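Subject: Protein record for review, amino acid sequence with backbone structure tokens
Category: Structural biology, sequence-to-fold work with a learned token vocabulary.
Format: Residues in single-letter code; tokens as whole numbers, each standing for a residue.
Body of memo: The sequence and its backbone structure tokens, given next.
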Amino acid sequence: MQSETIELSNGKLSKNMIKKYKDDGFLFPINIFNYKEALNLRTDLEKIEQKYSKIKLPKPLNDYKRGPANAVIPLVADIAKDNRILDIVECIIGSNILVWAAEFFIKEKKTDNIVGMHQDLTYWGMGETSGQVTAWLALSDSNKNSGCMEFVKGSHKNKILPHNETYSKKSLLSRGQEVQVRIPNNKKISAELLPGQMSIHHGLMIHGSGPNISNDRRIGVAIRYINPDVVQNTKRSYAMPVRGIDKKGNFTHYFAPETLFSEFNLKLHEEICENQHKVTSTTKN
């Protein structure tokens, strides 16, 4: 059942909604794009997929749709820079905003891909900071049948919990990570979204998603926003500035690509991925 849409005031979250986010660790559904805009974004993505099914890249296309896709795909960077999203994000982490990574999470129709219940910050090397928020934008119906995200209300108030690394082939996560806590089904809240709607969640939020048993792809764009106060425990960290200023200098800045998969941006994507893979896990298993 679709939840009541979050009411905005001049595109911003109300004080009550900000408090609700702080209490619950998530908010949804938030209207961002209208249906036609969302459909156009999906069409643009699928044109890229069709074109690059015939053009060879250094790595499989799916590798570039994940991680910092905003470093090689202008479409993703444009979504991440959209002021309608940034106005929401600013209410949570302040007016100085960087994109740490933006990526597609796609479950093909009638497939058993899942995302195990986990906490994002376990593997980001940023500690337990609240200077981050993930915005998850739906480009297709995201519901129980298609494998929408599920949140555990208030679980962001935990510290980073121990995780198992399953490396399951069914998992969309790089290590198949799953929190070592049993989550009863009645504690999971389904974040159902229509195309163009968005959810936001805290990096300590326990969340995951089930398989897509529907007759359509489940397409989402996950955008990881941080403020400049965040510090990452790797030798060199990268982020794309999208609003305000960065006086901290904790991240090497890069900017939105002008063209698809340029030689410069392909090398940049590889460099960012190599450094992110060196991040020290904070898991205690």
Q: What stands out?
A: Residues 35-51 form the longest helix (17 residues).
